[in-house]
Amino acid sequence: MKSKPIHTRNASKIAHYGVSLLALMSVGAVAPAFAQDAAPAEPEETVVVVTGFRNSLQSSISEKRKSNDIVDVIKSDDIAQFPDLNLAESLQRVPGVAIDRDGGEGRTITVRGLNSEFTRVRLNELEALATAGGKDVSGGANRGRGFDFNVFAAELFNSLTVRKSLSAEIEEGSLGATVDLRTARPFDYKGFTLAGSGQLGYNDLSKDTSPRGTFLISNRWADGRLGALLSVAYGERMANEEGSNTTRFENAYSPSNVGRFERYSTDGGTTWNAIAACTNANAACNTTETHATNPTLTGEAQKISRALHPRIPRYSRLIQDQKRLGVTGSFQMRPFEGTLVTLDAMYATFQSNRQEYEIEAISFSRNGQGLPKTDVYNYTIDDTGTLIKGTFNDVDVRAEQRFDELKTTFSQLNLTWEQDIGEKLKMKVLVGASNSLQDNPEQTTFTFDAYDVQGYSYDFTNKNAPVFNYGTKNGCTPDKACYWSYTPNTTATTPAASAALGDASLIRIRPQSVENKFATTKIDFKYDFNDTFTVKFGASTKSYDFESVEWGRYTASTNTRDEAAHKAATGVSYSAGLVDAIQADLGKYSQSVSVAGNTFLIPNLDLIRSTFGYDCRCVNQYGTFTINTVNSSSRANNRDAHEKDDTAYIQLDFSTDLGTIPFRGNIGVRKADTQQRVSGYVGKGTTPILTTIERSYSDTLPAMNLTLEPFENIYVRFAAAKTMARPTLASLSPGGTITTASQTLSVGNPYLDPVRANTMDLSFEWYPNKDSLLTIGFFKKDIKSYIQSFTRVVPFSETGFDISLLDGTGQVASTPYTVTQPVNTPGGELKGFEISFQTPFTFLPGFLRYTGGVFNYTHVESKINYNTSTTTTAVYREENLLGLSPESYNVTFYYEDGKLSGRVASSYREGYLVMLAPGSGADFSGKNETFNVDAQITYKLNKHITLVGEGINLTDEYDDRYVAYNTAQGNVVGDLPLDYSHPGRQYYLGFRYKY
User: Fold this and answer.
1) Distance CA 568, CA 566 (A)
2) Whole-prediction pTM value?
3) What is the DSSP string of 23-56?
């Protein structure tokens, strides 16, 4: 699968928005321009005091220039300087950084092609991890090491630093970059400071108006030796997403099912031809080979059965009600000369309650013997073997509402003591802890169903705008209650007959939570030998605790209507169960929604909850609503991990001359000892067994950063280091399933080694003046190992699991087991380059001299051999590293004249792979290219008040995801639609105040 080229539409978009900005700035600057033309010419020596955005750029350039390491910095000298919704959107302005959006706003970052799992984040110099929930298609709840930046408002921070090269004094754990987030402190300001902002936002898709505001107060006392600061940021946002979804594609006749199509017609449904069922569900029922134990299909029957079709084609609408609160506090004191004590506190909540409305055909996702089948006619199969269009009889249609109550709560407290010990020795002690709880106390899915619908059709001729027709049931359409039913089966009186008639309606209850805790103690020393050499050394201990919990209703389907069976199962009688009550008055318990111009009924979850109390976690007169953590659908997400990292380092910093050439840098080594303890449930039949495994490993990580200044204001930097990134938490879990009868084990791997790499950087930087920068950087990472899922046969003793799991089976340590689990595999080379240029256009005439630009471009290459097979015979396919976009860039044009300020920022990210083997026989899932444009304009009324207007996601960019196949049935296709939805544009109007 090849990466898609940059569309020409993006070039036109850049031109369009560039022209729009110039027009915007022209209108705002007409009066000043005419005034300048009428007035006498200003003397050339006039000094212009730079403030606002341009001043922030100057500060960023200065920080980059002074650093020994290769870094990029974003500065915010004033509260609310960033126009972005959250931190991720601010970070995308950094060269080499690309973001992934969820719900229309940035969530995670990729640095130089390495996704968020390879990036570590430090908040006020201490490692932290904040995680949030998300759409299923974009990863759902974050149970990994990647940081979710959408938890925090950008306004809470006054500097963001992306460290692309490592030095020994920086904590280990990243391959991509270390991101430093720093909140404001009172000693950042000269004295009393009061600042704030207020905005009203509007989303053009949800039609919702929401507030957003910030506040900061800071002061210093005792001749500046004491200071305190408080900042608050709060915002609300009601976001809608609408579009289509397929939940992947599948073959109608594949190893996991017996055939979804029963008959086909080539004359519009007048005459029908049978399609034979698979007679051996454990074999590959319809590969391109012939199997003696299975039917041999020919002609149209073979063509249809081998075709890929959408698994659950549907329209969907997602509503997110977001509330984001952040509070930071800081106290600083300098009681004695050479002593500085800083106490930083941070608290943040990100609530994003989510409702999903969907109407879908579920018949195309069924597997197994004895299930009802569908007839197909008026169909089209394209040259990739995909059934892109068809009309169907006997289709089961489902209307679904899912509700998620989501809230992330983050807190951190840390104390820093900096002490001069004599004239040459300095000490710094940091002690702190953070806690991030991602809580999902309610995740409920409720469905209505229509069985055996006639005349259902879908048409994916235009894959991004599919057309669905839901036929009729009982002479009714989906916007009528008579179309739907809510039952544990249709008219069946036995479970077997129910299974043959269709899937039961759902009431799925699945609350869950993810918690991450860090506790760190660090001590660092710096000794200045002389003006040339400085020695740095130190040690730290860090503990990290991760816990994932998921509960589930023991059975996801509706309760039986048979009172005797209900009483036997629960000990409780009922007079009118939930099923009977809803079915008897389905219209009462439904609500009408419209998605993509289609109106249909869905369950009214609020009314059903308040009437029947399904959230009681109990057994009541309406049914059994208890939950537990060990049922088969939940146990995989019940796991925890504890990590203890003890580290020490020594580093030599130097600044001297090589002849007449200034030469500076650092060289050092870091030693890291890691101890891990991970736990998870191994399902042994119907009985889960909690398994805990401990291990430890060590890494020695040398690092070097060198900087030459061969000409004034021109720097040549070289960096080299050994780096490591610890394995993902999901892959480390020993949880999974052991089936002793078939001697199979499908689990995580707690014995995984970190992903290790040797890295090199070479950059050339030119600083023509304090406003301008041109950088060309080259980077290379020799990734020594990667982590993939493999299937192999080994003696049970080599799996690393306790032999007691075989108790009572008669099996022994040497018994061969087919094991599917993640393992360390060969990695590959990652290389690329990035170009960054920023400058004010002071050479232009008239008002245009107040304009400027920031331009960044990154190119990355890295190929990995992926095993796409689910059997013990490996099948390799070379593709891009997961999360790697070969091309990305961002362009910002700005205008600033002291009164009027404006900027338009655009960012492009080429398509990238998201997941290997996402299910349904797919090799990969991925996301197509994105191009986002954000804009801001401000007007300074006076020295205290500034008016602000902002536009976020002005292109209303679609979340465009795909799946790719290379199947045994002969389907080779790289871009079948997975999800295609858009969130709308976000606008803000408001003010800023500073005293």
Assistant:
1) 5
2) 0.89
3) HHHHHHHHHHHHHHHHSPPPPTTPPPPP-HHHHH
